[in-house]
Amino acid sequence: MSGPFSLRYLHLFVGEKSPGTFILSRNGRLADYVGVSMEDVAGAIRHATRQSSYRYFWFAVAASAGEAAQLGHTWYHRYHPTDNVAPPAEFAGSAWQCTTDGCAACALAQPRH
Description:
A hairpin with a 7-residue loop joins strand 2 and strand 3. The protein is globular and about 40 Å long. It is built from four helices and four strands. Helices cover 30% and strands 19% of the residues. By secondary structure, the protein is an alpha+beta fold. It has helices spanning 10-13, 41-49, 65-79, 104-109; strands at 2-6, 20-25, 33-37, 56-61.
């Protein structure tokens, strides 16, 4: 994970279009939001910060969409972001499931078959 960086300088730190995971923060110390992008982490950060009070970000580029999704769930559980109403969405076609014991949020977010 790299950061925290000022969102003003996003273009300097995240250039290539790639899957990834990110944390947004208002104060540069606490995780307020955890997000995942299956294709373009820089674009997802830009989209998530429109009309928001976030000023800082951390990010990690992932080798695949699956890796980004798994890291997003890990960060969600580790940092307890205040602005996420649910864990970052799983990607289409994934059989991945949360492995955190007792995670009611992930259990409720899982699609039912």
